[in-house]
Amino acid sequence: SLSMARSSDSSLPQLPPRDPQAHKGDFGRALLIGGSRGMSGAISLAGMAALRGGAGLVRLAVPDACLDTVASFDPCYMTVPLACDADGRIALAAREEIAGLAEQATCLAVGPGLGRSQELTVLVGWMYETLTQPMVVDADALNALASHP
Fold first, then answer.
1. What are the recorded GO MF terms, alphabetically (predicted)?
2. Is the backbone of residue 129 left (phi > 0), alpha (psi -120 to 50) or beta?
3. Considering the chain, what is the average pLDDT of its residues?
4. How far is CA 38 from CA 34, 51, 84, 95, 146, in A?
5. DSSP 3-state assignment of 127?
6. Which residues, 6 or more positions from 132, have their beta carbon under 8 angstroms from its beta carbon?
């Protein structure tokens, strides 16, 4: 379990010092799924927050249509392009890629900047029902689950 230490000069919690021999993979592998054309900021900020929160390796899976924009926000997270629809949202065809990426992750987040479509409703429902990693469901992923049969 992660314990937070308090710094004497700050009331904000600080992550404890890491073992100099540790590898980034020792601190978890977060996969964040989201973003869409015109809404790339939300997933980018979520990735930055995951890094600041102590995740060792952060990977953002985003529609190919906004990959360059998301990648330009922060060089410390990795980006993976996903198949997208004509409106720049993640397509249902990305399901296999997401499944493979999820196998390498210790935790997932889905929703920031995702957008809305019938395909996304099906895709988010599939992720929620199928993927076994702990998952944060946020933003439009919540809307998708609310309308998922």
1. ADP-dependent NAD(P)H-hydrate dehydratase activity; ATP binding; NAD(P)HX epimerase activity
2. alpha
3. 93
4. 12, 23, 13, 22, 23
5. helix
6. none
**pLDDT > 90: what percent of the chain?**
85
User: What CATH number does the domain containing 133 carry?
Assistant: 3.40.1190.20
90 φ, ψ (degrees, to nearest 5): -60, 130
Q: Which two tokens stand for residue 130?
A: 């199928």
Half-sphere exposure of 35 (CA within 13 A, CB side): 31
Range of the domain at 34: 25-147
Q: Is residue 19 part of a domain?
A: no
**Mean pLDDT, residues 82-89:** 98
Q: How many domains does the chain have?
A: 1
